[in-house]
Amino acid sequence: xxxxxxxxxxxxxxxxxxxxxxxxxxxxxxxxxxxxxxxxxxxxxxxxxxxxxxxxxxxxxxxxxxxxxxxxxxxx
Length: 76
Fold this sequence. Notes:
two-stranded antiparallel ribbon; two-stranded antiparallel sheet; single chain
């Protein structure tokens, strides 16, 4: 298999991955979930947050088009 050859990592993953659309406010995965997937945001925005003991949500960041996420849990 020829790796990258001038392609970005995002292009490489997009060409070889499974494409799926998610509804607004749909949860992709939760803290502590086991995962073997790396996600690539192709369109839109994704909010990364934790839920505090009080029930309040604390936003840690966001991901947008071209951003990868979930790679750390996939490597674990």
